[in-house]
Design brief:
single chain, 3 helices, elongated, 5-stranded antiparallel beta sheet, two-stranded antiparallel sheet, mainly beta
């Protein structure tokens, strides 16, 4: 573990049925009825192109006239890579959910159909929203540690693991003063 993130070695496939909730019992209740779902899964979930693991948290599902409102926070780890050294890491993230899953018979208020819905069998699939919110939870510049040294631009040597034998590049004489400023840090 480096800088609060763990290194990912392999990504086994898992069963995504845990992300499919049966809410048929909520549909039989009146508006305002709610129920909490606890998540405490150590497995790995592959949701299209996002790999998450160790899914934990509580989601509150509330019946409304339009559908089921899901609210809560799920703590998880999302597989990504360090932008400097390209090592795969599992980044701890909080996925905030607050979304209405509409009934299939409910006409859409806008011309674009709602991607979140309760299917005819009374199930909600959380995969699309977890994928979207998971992507948004990952920072643009993910680092394995704040002091990651990156890779050699010539041979690809990971400077966190050692140095390389590549020759230092010759610098244009007009830019030598800029190089001196960079080396001061």
């Amino acid at each position: 573990m480096r800088g609060g993130v763990s290194i990912v070695t392999d990504l086994p496939r898992s069963d995504n049925r845990l992300l499919r909730l049966n809410v048929g019992f909520l549909l039989k209740e009146g508006p305002g009825y709610s129920r909490e779902f606890d998540f405490d899964q150590d497995g790995t979930f592959i949701v299209e192109d996002v790999v998450i693991s160790r899914l934990r948290g509580v989601l509150r599902l509330t019946r409304t006239r339009q559908g089921i409102v899901i609210q809560g926070t799920l703590r998880t780890q999302i597989a990504t890579e360090c932008v400097r050294c390209l090592i795969p890491i599992a980044l701890p993230c909080d996925i905030e959910l607050s979304e209405l899953f509409v009934y299939p018979a409910t006409p859409a208020a806008s011309p674009a159909p709602n991607p979140y819905f309760v299917d005819d069998g009374g199930f909600i699939d959380l995969q699309p929203i977890i994928r979207e919110e998971g992507i948004l939870a990952v920072p643009i510049q993910t680092l394995c540690s704040p002091d990651c040294k990156g890779l050699c631009s010539q041979c690809g040597q990971n400077f966190n693991e050692g140095t390389c034998d590549c020759a230092e590049e010759d610098i244009e004489p007009r830019l030598a003063s800029l190089r001196a400023l960079l080396e001061e840090d």
